[in-house]
């Protein structure tokens, strides 16, 4: 528990660094651009690669910066290209994932298994359970009826996104990007 509190403290201190602000702003812009290339399957189901920018921010700067980045990105995406009404629950959901990624990936050794576990935890608790709750609450859908489709989506996306993120992070580590932002 102390280690998680330290991660939040260290991540909050990252906000005082100009490098953090500039790099996070750059990743927000990248995330928004990548979000424009996502494919809308249903009203609540999208396939895209904007998660890379969000996860990278959380990995580099921790849960506080990651959570703020997730919220800011969600709001900016809505302003640029609204796909329905603005609902604060979805902004909170956009913040929850990076907070969890920050807790599990910030200042930790990079490994595929760590990324996969972080992705699986976010998939179950944030995307599957909380996302289904939001959809049921906001749109009057039956919670249990939403779970099978969302479960299938997460079962497919978790390994694919974990592999993709790992393949993006490896060359960045070799290029010593992580040392540049410290």
From the N-terminal CA to the C-terminal CA, the straight-line distance is: 24 Å
Name the beta content range: under 5%
- Rg, nearest Å: 16 Å
**How do the strands of the widest beta sheet line up side by side?**
1-2
Enumerate the spans where pLDDT stays under 50 for 5 or more consecutive residues: none
H/E element order: HHEEHHHHH
Instruction: List the total number of helices.
Output: 7
State the helical fraction. over 70%
- Structural category is mainly alpha
How many distinct beta strands? 2
* Main pleated-sheet profile: 2 strands, antiparallel
Globally, the shape reads: globular
User: What do the pLDDT scores average to?
Assistant: 90
Question: Care to describe what's here?
Answer:
The protein has 182 residues and is mainly alpha-helical. 79% of the residues lie in helices and 4% in strands. The chain contains seven helices and two strands; from the N terminus they run ααββααααα. The protein has helices spanning 2-14, 18-35, 51-80, 88-105, 112-139, 143-174, 177-180, and strands spanning 39-42, 45-47. Strands 1-2 form a two-stranded antiparallel ribbon. A hairpin with a 2-residue loop joins strand 1 and strand 2 (45-47). The chain is globular, with a radius of gyration of 16 Å. The model has no long low-confidence stretch (mean pLDDT 90).
